Amino acid sequence: GKEDGYDVWDLTQEEAVINNITEYNGYYSDRVGSGDSIYSAAAMMVWSDSNMHTRNTATENCRTSGRVDPVRQKKEMFEGTRAAQADEATIHIVGHWSYPEVTDDTYNYFDTDTVEFEEDHTYEAFNDTQLKRDPTTKTVYVIGSADVDKVELYRIDGETETLLGTDEDPDSTFIYSFENIDVTQGDGVIAKAYNVRGEEVTTDEIERTGEAATLRVTPHTAVAEGEDGEAVSDWRADGSDIAYFDIEVLDENGNVCALNYDRIDLSWSGEGTFLGGYNGGTGAGCFQNTQESAGLSNYFGGMKDGVSTIGQNYVYAENGTNRIFVRSTRNAGEFTLTATMDGLLPVSATITSNAVETVGGLTTQMQSELEPGVSEPPVTNTVDPMKPLMLNKLTIDWSNVKTVTEEDTRVYYEVQLNGEPLTLSERTYLGTMNTLFGPIYEILTAAQTAGASGFTMTYNDSVSPVTLEVAKDGHTYQYEENRNQLLIDNTEYTECVDTPYMEGDTFIANLPLMLGYAGIRTEIDDTNHVLNIIVE
């Protein structure tokens, strides 16, 4: 559900970006031209604040899983993805280098209990047991593009650089790992990337930040081309145009304070409607806020002490930043936003809206204009695969060529009915997203023969595409050959990930999904690779 602390998963941004890059490598390694062309194209979701295919059971999952957050601020996953997909040599150090010293008040988090609900379902819930992480043995990750061959990690101490580790064997093509790093030491960290020739091609550096010293307020509006060809503000006084201000908490060296979560108070004046900002994320189990610790349980759920920050005259910094929105009025003029934080001087920024011409109450200016025609194709990675240099002519002795049979790497499961093995025409295997795929029609037929009731089944393999429909309690659930959507009452409901298909004369599809809708209970033993169909 959406209760604080009970979201479907609880990942840090570091864990999320590593998971994301690992999954991206699945596409990259099997792309066209790789020799194993499973994919001919790919689309990458940019989760922020939307309900993508019902994945929004717990709202914060979408917000935390995104390349950007709900107000489109870039997150670690954005930077990691940018590095992995870059056409030129690029690296990105995941995280920050502003870890505090180990004290009673730092590196604390709550343990979790496994809670059972319904039948055969569990979730992790925070308890009152406080645990402590060890920042002296942390693994630091660097994401590198495909043309990076080696990464070195150095700690910066003043003018001195100390080598912490070298990785020449990345995980999932892009992930360079450096274990047992004491992240509480040093003034910063720098990663250096090298190509296959041993040449340094790029670097990434993070400095340790100090205490908050000032705020920086940066306005953003639409832009247009001025008379001299320069970019000028195009914030329009049409009563609907949106502008926004980025607010950053800086230390004395001008670096964003990565661990600042303090309150930012806001005031404004002029021609604009203040819309405010947003705080999001699940806060149960965390101790990050340094200024106000009381009532923190719902702080990162968009609320603080039960009050949402949306539309309020304050927000809280998240990793040292936040974003404030304002809508223009129909009167052209200046709008000034002032941000203050306890102990810091106020900082202001001003933007000016431009008058909009109207005729009979209607504007002659469109909110945006796009040139007609087909847009440019998306940027793709154009790094050519490495090929050996054939300096001498190669002659192959075909009489000594050995043919090797391709290895079947699928994980197969035995299907049982009430504990007894079922004889089926095709084997059941573990597909994408750890979902079992097998001869669904044969299994449903066997279950009905054994006494399963409460549903009817219609299987049509005389036409193309082949369909299988289960009816239960006034609803229908349908699989269709080569269609990766389960239809509920003839409406697309959820993706099947691996599409149903015909293996000879046998219809293969997601088993647990359809068996569940038919009201048939299953037990899955992942240790012994057994799927047991239970008919009582």
Automatic annotation (TrEMBL):
Domain of life: Bacteria
Name of the protein described by the UniProt record: Uncharacterized protein
